[in-house]
Amino acid sequence: MVEDSVIISARNVDFYYGDFQALKNINIDILRDEVTAMIGPSGCGKSTFLKLLNRMNDFVPGARLSGEIFIGGESIYAPEADPVVIRRRVGMVFQRPNPFAKSIYDNICYGPRLVGVKKPKELDELTEKALRAAALWEEVKDKLGKSALELSGGQQQRVCIARALALEPDILLMDEPTSALDPIATAKVEEWIKDSGLSIVIVTHNMQQAARISDKTAYFFLGELIEFGPTKELFTRPKEVKTENYITGRFG
Amino acid sequence: MKDAPEKTPPLDSPGIIRLQPKLSRAERGVKFFFLLCAVSALGSMFLIMIFLFMEAGGLFFSGDEGAGVGLKEFFLSLDWYPTYPDPSFGSLALVLGSLSVTLVSILLATPFGIGLAIYLSSVAGPRVREWLKPAVELLASIPSVILGFVGMVAVAPFMQNVLNLPTGLNVLNASLFLAIMATPTIASLGDDALSAVSQAVTDGSYALGATRWETISRVILPASLSGLSTAVILGLGRALGETIVVLMVAGGAAQAPHSLFDPVRPLTSTLAAEMGETAIGSRHYHALFALGAVLFVLTLAFNLLAFYLARRWREKS
Ligand SMILES: Nc1ncnc2c1ncn2[C@@H]1O[C@H](COP(=O)(O)OP(=O)(O)OP(=O)(O)O)[C@@H](O)[C@H]1O
Ligand SMILES: [Mg+2]
Fold first, then answer.
1. Among B194, B203, B208, B220, the residue to mutate for chain A (most A Cβ within 10 A)
2. In this structure, is residue A252 part of a structural domain?
3. Domain assignment present for B219
4. Do B207 and A85 make contact, defined as CB atoms within 8 angstroms?
């Protein structure tokens, strides 16, 4: 059944920062185990939409929402939904690497410790697993006690990925995860995204990147979802003129 | 690479032009004026210090009043009887007096100050913060003589009656008011330290499913620990140097305190109370300068500690 493979779905989502409408009637179905890229000009609402998916917009004063967002079939803005639980299932990696001023080990264990994992053996195993998954294990296995802030930017970003993976989330949200990284570090993170097998939603300004790593692409413009479809089609045969203008650089 | 130094001509060789902004006459005048300000400020501080230590030294050398006071007596004796026919000049009771009220006041002020700092930086909304932070800082501007007055006429009799004490002017009363004075310092500087933890990092914590309290206790507090200790130590310095409040409510007895309810005589109030009554050049006069020097060294030590912690904090972040 098609329905089963939908992991995120948004229905008639309008979103406001105070009086300013940042998202207009968004409807989208994102499939399980796919990489979904979000592109669009600056200020079009990509980050806003992404942060709705793990309720990080709850912290913005004056934020309002109408419509519904389902993750795994559950409405995440229903009154009984617990944002803390949602954020454990929906991990997030930010634009700039933001590791805690703690050791690499403590960074990875942060999430698991919050949910009550205490046994050293369990934490050790989970750290290795998460760091391997983020393709960082070989580089840091001998210095897990070192401060994460002493790593390079690319390594820090992978610590942040591993930190999110340690909670074994269903979904990983990434907001321009490589925009602060050099090409080599970017390549490593991209490689990881392609091979991870996770459901990933990634915001990017880099259209080549979207083309390289994503299965589906969504094009946002001024708070609207203009077009959403398989990446190859969207980049070779866009249905909308606005999309075509954007991807061919005739935008603005 | 080895012969590189030889290729670099010496900086003062002919043909080397030193680049610098060209200053007009007026600009040079202004520059000179500010240099003068800086030099005179530093110079006068330095002169005061020299004066302080020279006058303090007079205590330890023999003079008109006989042999000098021994270092051992000055630092280790509890007896401060400067006006007796057979005077003694032990500073220990006064130092203990200062340290006791300072430490107790910090024990009282730290939880309040840090708590307030946490509230300001991480709990209060922008609207509450907008008026609360200036209000807290305003608390620091209450003249200390007013606090001392309240301690004297309101808190002291109350304490004396309720706890059935010989006097309500004691360590606890003084510490209470010193704590009131140190709290705004700690809260304001502590808030700065906590607010310096970047939003990006706290977002990272929330995004991993941490609650607000988990984020404060596991991320924000550890990351700002040295900033917070700086705040506490500067608050401590404020309490240590405070004069009027302790003069009014600490009780004034030069003795080593054994409980919170003993009256004490801190260094500052001793200086303020006795300096006007001594003959210039007398032994007592020199002894007061020696107390001043001790106070100066203690304060300096606290400030250096704060400076050191603040620098370590900056290096880490
Ligand atoms: N906290 C906020 N308060 C008010 N308006 C906001 C806030 N955050 C974003 N906006 C506005 O909402 C719109 C969408 O912002 P958003 O950050 O989602 O854009 P974006 O597509 O991620 O842009 P970029 O590519 O530059 O990151 C912008 O017009 C922005 O000014
Ligand atoms: Mg953005």
1. B208
2. no
3. yes
4. no
pLDDT in tens, B152-201: 999 999 999 999 999 999 999 999 999 999 999 999 999 999 999 989 99
Task: Look at ligand 1, atom 29, and give the residue with the nearest C-alpha.
Answer: A43
Number of structural domains in chain B? 2
Amino acid at B183: T
Strand partners, A74: A71
Q: Do A87 and B125 touch (CB under 8 A)?
A: no
Q: A160 in a domain, yes or no?
A: yes
Give which of B59, B56, B57 is closest to B68, Cα–Cα: B59
Are B273 and B190 in contact by the 8 Å Cβ rule? The answer is no
> Closest Cα to atom 26, ligand 1: which residue?
A42
CA–CA separation, B142 vs B127, rounded Å?
24
* Amino acid in position B206: Y
- Smallest Cα distance from B191 to chain A, Å: 19
What interface predicted TM-score (ipTM) does this complex get?
0.90
A59 touches ligand 1 (CB under 6 Å) = no
The range of the structural domain enclosing residue B62 comes to 25-70
Which sign does the torsion angle of CA B16, B18, B19, B21 carry?
negative
- Neighbouring residues of B248: CB distance < 8 A, sequence distance ≥ 6: B145, B148, B149, B151, B152, B169
Flag whether residue B211 sits within 8 Å of chain A, measured between CB atoms: yes
Is B3 contained in some domain? no
Query: A148 in contact with B at a CB cutoff of 8 Å?
Result: no
